[in-house]
Design brief:
- This is DYW domain-containing protein.
- This protein is of the alpha+beta class.
- It is built from six helices and four strands; from the N terminus they run H-H-H-H-E-H-E-E-E-H.
- The chain has a four-stranded mixed beta sheet, with helices on one face.
């Protein structure tokens, strides 16, 4: 939340948190109409499924999406830079956001640029197959 607090000094922290949370919840409601369901296979913590959905629901790239909707002009490209790879759930969610809301997004993760537009990603979902293999290997560890 510190990033948002510095970028929007005219409102109080609680108002910002509620606004961003509400915008993200509205976005999720819309992308669920196209079949989005939180993908929790990559969460290796020993917690309940609902808790896993909460964990993936607040990844940094998802937190930036409502910020972009609120602060940037409609039609402008939202650019996100990460120092780790994008997870499959965020990848799927951002693809659907680009389709539903007709907003281009560019995510630079540790390995590549992902250009999301009209429900497609420039990586052709290559990363999803690699992540699935890594998850299988992690789950097979004793």
């Amino acid at each position: 939340m510190a990033l948002f607090m510095n970028l929007l000094p005219e409102t109080g922290p609680m108002i910002r948190r509620v606004k961003f949370t509400q915008v993200w919840e509205d976005i999720v409601t819309e992308i669920k109409k196209l079949g989005y369901a939180p993908e929790t296979k990559g969460v290796v913590f020993d917690v309940e499924e609902e808790e896993k959905e909460t964990v993936v629901g607040y990844h940094s790239e998802k937190s930036v999406v409502p910020f972009g909707f609120i602060s940037k002009e409609p039609g402008s490209v939202l650019r996100i830079v990460k120092n780790i790879r994008i997870c499959s759930d965020c990848h799927s969610a951002i693809k659907l956001v680009s389709k539903v809301f007709k907003r281009k997004k560019v995510v630079r993760d540790r390995r590549r640029f992902h250009h999301f537009e009209d429900g497609f990603c420039s990586c052709n979902d290559y990363w999803l197959s690699i992540e699935a293999e890594m998850v299988e290997l992690l789950l097979a560890l004793p």
